[in-house]
Here is the input.
Amino acid sequence: MDISDFKSNEEIAWCPGCGNFGILTAVKKTLSQLARHPKDILFVSGIGQASKLPHYVNCNCFNGLHGRTLPVASAAKIANRNLTVLVTTGDGDCYGEGGNHLIHNIRRNTDITVIVHDNQVYGLTKGQSSPTSDPGYVTKIQEEGVILEPLHPLEMAIALGAGFVARGYSLETEHLSWLIGEGIRHKGFSLIDVLQPCVSFNKKNTYEWYSKRVYKVNDNGSYDPENKMAAYEKSHEWGDRIPIGIIYRAEKETYEEKRGLSQGIPLVDEQIEDVDIKGILSEFV
Here is the structure.
């Protein structure tokens, strides 16, 4: 496949300079290298600027409710193990409204890849703070600054037992494309948190701010992403230095394997007997 095979004709509605463009570029580059036809790929999204990404990629798409991406994505993978299932979501959509689903889908370890566009604000609804906003960050709603400790998604995912935990940066598209590919190839639940500048509303966490701080966690080859305690410590690093790359990786039995769904006919191909739906519904009327 080629990148052009995944090009959509939809007009892009993001602000010029939005960090989402870098994520879109990385996603399409990754998909073109998977040797999979667009019909074999499913994107699931919720609500928000990040959730518009599937509209701009030529493949299957399901737009769900705010925070409800993961149940749909997991169900699709369980029903059809031959699909490559990706979730594209924002920090508010996934860590706020969808936080409970995130916790329990990490526990299940379904073989899906979750890409979180983390701009530390609610971009669709004009810039109020999100679960990952830094303390003291001022918005039109939080006029005296954010007073709460931010949610730390990488720490949380590692503590809950996620098998693949990574962070990317939307300006580093080649590196991000590699991360997404590694997440897809990982057997089980993969979380990739992507630092994504919001040029319209977040005037703190800008391209300049990130570019001075991010570094590739394994540039010198000494970091071991299979060391859970080292990964937990690395995931907490934020401020003057921010690591990007694969923070933690471990092989675990997937939900599909535990349920025996990795053998035999995929559920989507099972023959279903004719059912009298009207008769069943009439019992409840």
